[in-house]
Amino acid sequence: MEERRDLYEVLGVGKAATADEIRKAYRQAALKHHPDRNADDPAAAERFKEATEAFQVLSDEQKRGVYDQFGFAGLQGGGGGFPAGVDLGDIFGNFQDLFSEFFGGAPSRGRGRQGPRPGPDLRGVERLSLRDAVIGCKRDLSLRFPAPCDGCKGSGAAPGSQASQCPSCRGSGQISNARGFVMFTAPCPNCRGEGRVIKTPCTTCRGSGQQEKNKKIVVSFPAGIDDGQVLRVPGQGAPGPDKDSPAGDVLVQVQVEPDARFERHGPDLATRVKVSLTDAILGVKVDIPILDAKEDTVSLDIPPGTQPGHVILMRGKGAPRLDGKGRGQRGSMHVMIEVGIPAPAELSTRARELVDELHAELGKKAAE
Ligand SMILES: [Zn+2]
Ligand SMILES: [Zn+2]
Q1: Ligand 1 centroid to 166 CA: how many Å?
Q2: Who contacts 27 (Cβ-Cβ below 8 Å, separation ≥6)?
Q3: Which of 21, 60, 86, 312 is the most buried (most CB within 10 A)?
């Protein structure tokens, strides 16, 4: 696999960089490497492209979240990521926030509210079998997130040393120049717009002030959760920036694996069962597979004279409803009856005689 440079490294910003810092860093890189300004340096075009790609991801909060958690694999559809060619914006746009359903209508902590700013939300994707989704399950999730570096407490300067105010811009991060009547403001080239310079970078985080940490949580997926839904686990995300600020939330998108035995439409499940010709004529009791914590099958009486394609409804044998009317109640299992007509080669001589007799008998009856 092609080795790619870390996107934060490409723009020369830390993992905790604000949207504004990212925009500034990109602007600087774009100006510096723009192919029009570097006609004699063929590598500049490559660096310009690299910076633009980095900016496209890091300037989009959702793409950035995916990249933070899964790296390039998350953006390109590798392990644990998203299918290739799918616009991440679409996926996140379709997220259904089930918070109010699962946690008694507790309000989501708005970013604009007063009080300490909560830590960032962490996002994950979990694949569940159809059975686990229908009956509910618990999973251990391991989530990666950027946190202030332990070595330097987030300052980026080596222990014992300190970041100092940038002498060129005196800490503002910007340099202003007057040209005629107009003032031009540009990011300070000495500190790259940060306003401070680190003479001796921390060796743990190479001066970024950030370190990747790992958090393990147990997530309970409620019975009846469906493909594409997102479970919000409040207060289990990354720690807040200050001592008294709450942690962010964890958002887990559920992917439900298909099960060849069933089709699912919300709380309703459908399955097919094949019976023999004589069973369809005479009636029969069959075991129908269901998705239930206690039993794997349930007995169904197929009445005499059941037609091929007939659907029998088994109420309460589908998946639990998570929302709307009848929340917690289970949907139905729709059982479609298929009838196996034996091929001529499958009939013994005796069976063939009996079918001929039956044919004659039914024909006689019809003629009466
Ligand atoms: Zn450090
Ligand atoms: Zn400066």
Answers
A1: 19
A2: 187
A3: 21
Read off the amino acid at residue 23: R
At residue 235, what is the residue type? G
**What secondary structure does DSSP assign to 11-37, as a single string?**
HT--TT--HHHHHHHHHHHHHHH-GGG
Q: How far apart are CA 118 and CA 245, in angstroms?
A: 5
SS3 238: coil
Kindly give the distance from the C-alpha atom of residue 119 to the centroid of ligand 1, in angstroms, as a whole number.
19
Distance 158 CA to ligand 1 centre (A): 7
- Taking the CA of 159 as reference, the closest ligand is 1
Instruction: Give residue 200 CA to ligand 2 midpoint distance, Å.
Output: 16
One DSSP character per residue, 74-87 reads HHHT-TTS--TT--
pLDDT in tens, 183-240: 888 899 988 888 888 889 999 888 888 888 888 999 999 999 999 999 999 999 888 8
Q: Which ligand is nearest to the CA of 174?
A: 2
Residues 6+ apart with CB under 8 A from 196: 163, 164, 165, 166, 171
Residues of the chain with CATH 2.60.260.20: 95-103+118-163+198-258, 263-367
For residue 57, the CA-to-ligand 1 centroid distance in Å is 24
Candidates 256, 263, 238, 254; CA nearest to 102 is 254
The enclosing H or E element of 96 equals: strand 96-97
Which residues hold their Cβ within 5 A of ligand 1, which is an ion?
A: 149, 151-152, 202, 204-205
Could you tell me the pLDDT band of residue 263, with boundaries at 50, 70 and 90?
very high
d(CA 274, CA 261): 12
* Domain 263-367 falls under CATH 2.60.260.20: yes
CATH class held by domain 95-103+118-163+198-258? mainly beta
CA 146 to ligand 1 center in whole angstroms: 12
